[in-house]
Amino acid sequence: MNETLKAKTITLVKGMGIGTANVIPGVSGATIAIITGVFERLIHAIKSCDITALKYLFSGRFKDLAKHIDLGFLAPLMLGVVIAILSLARLLEFLFSDYPVYIWSYFFGLILASVYFVGKSVEKWTLLNSLLCLGGIAFAVTLTYANPAVENRHTLYVFLCGVIAICSMILPGISGSFVLILMGNYELIVFEGISGFKLGLLLPFLLGCGIGLVGFSHILSWIMDRYKHQTIATLTGFITGSLLIIWPWKETVFKLNDLGEPLLKDGDPVVFKYLPILPDGFSSEVIIALIIMVIGVASIWIMEYLACPPNKPKKKP
Q1: Rounded to 5 degrees, what are φ and ψ at 271?
Q2: Could you tell me the pTM of the whole model?
Q3: Which of 25, 38, 79, 291 satisfies CB 3.0 to 4.6 Å to 177 for a cystine?
Q4: Residue 72: is it exposed, middle or buried by C-beta count within 10 angstroms (0-12/13-18/19+)?
Q5: Dihedral sign, Cα of residue 16, residue 20, residue 22, residue 23
């Protein structure tokens, strides 16, 4: 296979991994971006969608535009994200309905291993970096116990959901989908908007995503350039704290009406939030889930090995 085509195919697959993670509540697409080694390049590419890019576009200097925004990397990556989101929304709805513990177990193992690989890229764990990491953990844990808002399909609110969710999606350890749950619009956007392909919901949400993505990428890029190791330490905390959200065994808390009874939507009780619990006994389900966790951990070790095998010198952070 041509080396350029091979590189673009690999980038496409990485994009699909990021897109898949962004659909799952509790799993951060940016964490997958860090694991696959594309996070910093992605942030800088998005940041390059600026006034200079618009000048190149409107003056017809398309080659300069492509080079400026790193289009050779950004296009296959974003294509992979879109393919994953559009194709996997229905599949994940089925898997979470029928095999929730196993799906969560795999991603728990995935994120657990990523804590080590992200954390080891910090040049030196000083007191400040350790405190920033603890702060990141505390913030992520707080999100777990936050009370979700009610569903709101107003266009401006859906737009705001897009802005806030996309900012969360490019922060490792902070799940954009989980933030949508806290804002009350996860089911509305993913199941009705994406799966049902309702443009009235998708367009304002995607507009918010676009504006939020470009704006926040400038901020994050500036911080990464000046305080890289402090930022990574904080992100390590975010990722560590998110493990509580991803824990496979959860207690479902339903929304209640004025009579204290579960609120129904289309005949089904409406989920309020999920709280982590310990499994009931050491059943066959628990054993299978633990095996799947190990597979998740192994997946990260394999990715790291392929990205930087023993005979290949590692880049300094």
Answers
A1: -75, 130
A2: 0.66
A3: 25
A4: middle
A5: positive
- Signed CA dihedral, 89, 91, 97, 102: sign only: negative
102 CB-near residues (< 8 Å, 6+ apart): 248, 288, 289, 292
Amino acid in the structure at residue 5: L
Cα(280)–Cα(82) distance, integer angstroms: 38
How many CB atoms lie under 10 A from the CB of residue 84? 23
Classified as helix, coil or strand, 252 is: strand
Helix (H, G, I), strand (E, B) or coil at 135: helix
For residue 90, count other CB atoms closer than 10 A to its CB.
14
Q: Are 273 and 170 in contact (CB under 8 A)?
A: no
Q: Is residue 168 exposed (0-12), middle (13-18) or buried (19+ Cβ within 10 Å)?
A: buried
The token pair at 135 is 């702060």
